[in-house]
Design brief:
mainly alpha; flat
């Protein structure tokens, strides 16, 4: 961008001023004295800003320490709930046994911990197994992970809940969300098959064929490949 004469003169003037300050100790002393006067006149403001910055930094590190200690305790307290979950004792897993906390307790008592986040996933799966689909969705929607597999699995389970409620459009949405989350040859084909089924339930054969076609072209080594070809051919013969 071209400089105008005004800008050029301004830059030159600033350079001259800097040069004068370096060559003239008296001018530099005046500048420093002016800064000291400003600090004296605005000492409360400076002190307030410094105090606020200190509180922000201290608060951040304090919260991180609190979160870390909370998470360690929450992981210990959740151990029995996970055991009940794996034993398919879902009510005990969700609500505890009177001596040990359940997943709902972990979520409420340790809100900011990673364990509470994971408890949302376990609670969602537990409610899904109990046929409480709305509760399952709510807890699974509150779960968040950067993991390659678990987040996509959560999206797929939300899709399963919608399928059970015969809300096929919502189910297809979440199956596609699962398929689109860090695609891989191990699980993505499964999610695409579920999406295709939801589209068939919606009487949208073209979208179902698109889902099958993704498996055929991108995941031809998967176990779903053969069924995808068969189901796509069936849709084409019916059209």
């Amino acid at each position: 961008m071209a400089f105008g004469f005004g800008q050029i003169f301004s830059v030159m003037a600033k350079k001259d001023e800097t040069k004068d300050l370096l060559q003239n100790p008296e001018a530099l002393a005046e500048k420093l004295e002016g800064a000291e006067n400003w600090l004296e006149q605005n000492s409360k403001l400076v002190t307030g800003i410094a105090g606020a910055l200190f509180l922000i930094v201290a608060g951040y590190f304090g919260f991180m320490y609190y979160k870390s200690s909370q998470d360690a305790q929450a992981q210990r307290d959740m151990f029995q709930a996970v055991y009940y979950f794996e034993a398919d004792s879902l009510n005990l897993a969700l609500n505890g046994d009177g001596n040990n906390l359940g997943f709902i307790d972990i979520i409420n008592d340790y809100k900011f911990s990673d364990a509470a986040n994971l408890a949302h996933f376990y609670a969602g799966v537990s409610y899904l197994k109990q046929g409480k689909y709305e509760a399952a969705r709510l807890y699974l929607e509150d779960f968040s992970s950067n993991d390659l597999l678990v987040q996509a699995r959560a999206y797929s389970l939300i899709g399963d809940a919608y399928m059970e409620e015969e809300k096929f459009e919502d189910a297809a949405k979440y199956y596609n969300k699962a398929a689109g989350y860090k695609p891989n040859k191990f699980f993505t084909p499964t999610y695409l098959m579920k999406a295709a089924l939801a589209y068939e339930k919606l009487n949208q054969p073209e979208k179902a064929k698109e889902a099958y076609d993704q498996i055929i072209t991108k995941y031809f080594e998967s176990a779903e490949f053969t069924n995808a070809r068969k189901f796509k051919a069936k849709l084409e013969s019916n059209s």
